[in-house]
Amino acid sequence: MTTFIFDVLKDLHKNNQNLSELTFVLPSKRAGLFLKHQLSKVVEQTIFSPNIISIEEFVEDLSELKNSTNTELLFEFYSTYIKLTKPNEADTFESFSKWAQILLQDFNEIDRYLIPQKNIFDYLSAIQDLNHWSLENNKTEFVKNYLSFWNKLHNYYIQFTQQLINKKIGYQGLIYREAVNNLEAYIQENSKKQHVFLGFNALNTSEETIIQKLLENNLAKTYWDIDAVFINNQKHDAALFTRQHKNNWSFFKNKPFNWITTNYSEEKNISVFGIPKNIGQAKYIGSLLNNLQKDNQSLQNTAVVLGDENLLIPVLNSLPQAIEALNITMGFPLKSIPIASLFESLFHLHKLPSSTFYYKDVINIISHQFIRPLFHTNEVDVATKIIETVDSNNLVYLTAERLKQLAGNSIHIIDLLFSNWDQSVNNALKNCSQLIILIKDYLDNEKTSNLLSLEYLFRFNELFNELSRLNTAYHHIKDISTLYSVYKELLSSETLDFQGEPLQGLQVMGMLESRVLDFETVIISSVNEGILPSGKTNNSFIPFDVKIENNLPTYKEKDAVYTYHFYRLLQRAKKVYILYNTEADILTGGEKSRFITQLELEGIHNIDHQIIAPQVPVIETSLNTVEKTNSVLSELKKVAQKGFSPSSLTNYIRNPIDFYYQKVLKIKEHDNVEETVAANTLGTVVHNTLEDFYKPLIGTFISVEIIKELKTNIVKTVTHHFTDVYKEGDITKGKNLIIFEIAKRYVSNFLDLEIDDLKAGNQIKIIAIEANNNVAIDIPELDFPVIITGKVDRVDEYNGVTRIVDYKTGKVEQNSVEIIDWESITTDYSKYSKSFQVLTYVYMMHVSNQIQLPVEAGIISFKNLSKGFLKFSKKDKAGAYAKKDALITQETLDHFYKELKHLVLEICNLNIPFIEKEV
What we know:
The protein is α/β, with parallel strands linked by helices. The strands form ten sheets. It has a seven-stranded parallel β-sheet. α10 links the parallel β5 (194-198) and β6 (220-223). It starts with a helix and ends with a strand.
C-alpha cells in the first residue's frame, strides 16, 4: 500500500521539484512527522530537509500574532467588557465567563470566514429589537439592558480585537483575518518561495483566500485527497468541500485538479460489529488486536481510531500484553488524573465562606491517596486518628481549630487544607502550590518509583502557576468560587501528553489526528449518531438562518467534515473494523451511525455485519461455607469460656457466618458518624435513663408519688445520656431534635403506664435492674466449660408474681414471644429470637438462684406500650384459639435447656461447618 503522502512526494520528485526549497503546509503537526519519514523513501541522496509546518503555524507566521489560550482570552475580553459596561450593570467574571465563551466562538467564526463584522452584529441587534417590538412602550429595565447588550456587540468586538492586536496575540479567527490582511506583503517578500498544500478538505474563507492567492501567483501547489466515488456522486458529503473548491476556484478552470484517486473501489475486508456499551467496544478492540497478532500480522501499519476519546483508558487497559510498540497521539485529560479529585474537593469545600466543614468533605480530603501519607509522623497515622475521633464523637461539622487539636505535629498540613484560605484567592493558590511541593517531597523520599505521580504533580504545578499569572495580570478573580470556575475551565482543556515513537507500532488516535495519514488496518470505535457524526449542536448566539445568509458553517458542514475523515480512513485501507454501541444513549451517542447504513447501501464492498454479545460466564451462586479447624475450635473454646450472650446465640441462629466473623475472626462493624441518631443509640439512651430512675428503687414497692417524682427528671436525665452516648452530635435541630423528643416521650409514656398500673391497684416491687448474669451450663459432651452471660433489664414482682422484663424501643407484637414447638426456637430467627432471648434470661437467673420458679418473662415494647407487658407463652397449637401457658416452670426450662444445649453443641462441633443462610 502506498500512502497519500508518498504519492505526493513521488509526484513532486518526478516533476524535478527541489524538495529542500519547498514549504510543505499540512493540516496537522503529526502529518509533518510522517512526511519527513516518507522523504527517505523517495529521495535516494542526502538533502536538506524542507520546511514542514502545520496550517496553524503558517497562518501565525503570516499574521505576526501568537495564538492565546481560551482562558487568557476570557480575561482579556472581560477587561474590554468592564471598560464598556457601567459598573452597576456589569456581570461578575464568573457569570460573564458562561456567555462569553459562546461569544468568543462566534467572534472566531466571523473572523475565520471574513464576515463584515458590523453588518452581522447590526443584523443580530435588529433581530432582538424585532423580537421585542411589542414591548416598545413599556420595556422593563431588564429588557432595555438586554437590548443594550446586543447593541454593544460590535463595540465589544472592535475594542477586544484591537486590544489583542496591540499585545501581538489573538484567537484563531483573528489570526486568520490578520493573515489575510498581510497576504499581499508576504507575497511580495517571498516571490520565489514555493508552497505545497496537501491533504486539506474543509477550508474556511481565510484559508481559501490565502491558498487561492498563492496559487494565482504561482507560489503554491495543492494536492487534494479525494476518491472518484465521492466526487462524482453529487450527494456524497465526503466530497462536499472538495467539489466546491473544484467548481468555484477560478484557478482550476484551466489547471489540473490534483488528485482524484480510485483507491476506495479496490477490494477491502470491511467488518461492522455492534457491541453493547462502550466498555464492550474497548474489550473487543483488544480481542481484534490479539487476533491480528495471532495471524502474524504486524501492527506497524495499524491504527485504532477512537470516535469517542473517552474510550482511551478502557482501550489501553484492554490492549494485549504482547504489543511492544505503541504510540498514542491523544492526551490524557488532566481532569481524569487522580490528583484532580483532591483539588476538586478542596475548591468544593472552600467555594462558599464558612467557619465549619462537613465531616464527609473533611474525611474525603484527608483520606485522599496523595494527602493521607503526609499525615504519617513518627509512625503515627494522624489521618486515622482524626477519622476515628470524628466517628466516635459523632462530629458532623468541624472547625479548623478542632482539626488542629487532633493533628498533633501535622498542623501545617491542616493549615494548607482548611484554615489558610479565608476566601482569599492568593492564599488559595499559594496553598495549592505548597501542597504540590509537600506531595513531591514525600514522593521523592519514597523508595518505590513514582515517575507518573511526579508527572501529574508537574502538570498541576504548571496549571496553578498559570492561574497565579492570570490573576496577577488581570485581577479579575475576586473569590474562591470564581477561582474554582476558572480552574475548571483550564482543567478541561489541559492534557497530559503521552510520549512514544510516532512512526512505530500500533497507533491510537482520535478522528482528527488521522488527517492525511493512511493505514492498512483500521479499527474505528463509537460509530454512532451523535459521535460520528456529532449531529446538531447550536452553541452560538448566531441564529441558523443568519449563518446560512452569511455562509457560516452549520451542523451540515460539520457533519460533512466527519464524513470526509471517516471515508478517507477507508480509502487505502485493506482491513477495516467498524464498531458501534448497540445500546442507544442520548448522553453518549444514539443509534448506529448513518455512515454504516451508507456503506451498506453503496453496494461497493461486501460488509460483514455482526452483533457481538459479550461472553458472560454463568456464576453459580453458592452459600459461603467455612469449615471448622482446630484453630477455629480453639477460638470457640475461648468464646465459650468468656461467655455466650443471648444476642450472640441468636446471631448464630440468624446466620452462622455472621457469628463466625464477629466471634471467631473478631471483625467488628465500623462505627460511622451518626448524622441522624441511630435506633440502637435511641435504645441505649432510653435503657440508661430507666436504669438511673429505677436502680435506687431496688427492693422497694414503687408508688404513684415516686413515679411522678421521676417524671420531673426526664429532660435532665435523657439529655445527660444523649450527651454521653451521642458524644458531640447535635440534638438541637432537625431529625435529631425529633428523636430527642421521642426519647423523652418513650420514657414519659412508660412511666405513665406504671402510674396507670399502680392506680389500678397492682403492686409492683423492683427486685433487680440491669442485673448481670454469668452462669455455667452443664454440657457433659464438651471437655471445656461453657458460660452464658447477659444483662437483664428489669426483674420485678407484680402482684406476687416474679417477672423478667426486657425493654425494646422497637415495635414487638404478642406473637413474637409465643412458641408452638421447642425445636423451632433455635432454627427460626425471625419468629422466635425474642422468645429465645427472654428464656435465656430466665434460665441464667434460675441457675444462679436469683429467682424461684414459676415466673413470667416477656417484653415491654415502647412502640406498642398500649399492649403492656407482652408475656412469653407456650401454645399447644397454631391459631387464635390455642391454649397458652404463660407461666415458666421447671418443665419449661428443661425443654429450653435441651434446645440450648443442642445449639451450643452445634456451634462447638468440629464436623459442622459455619454455613451461610439466605437472608
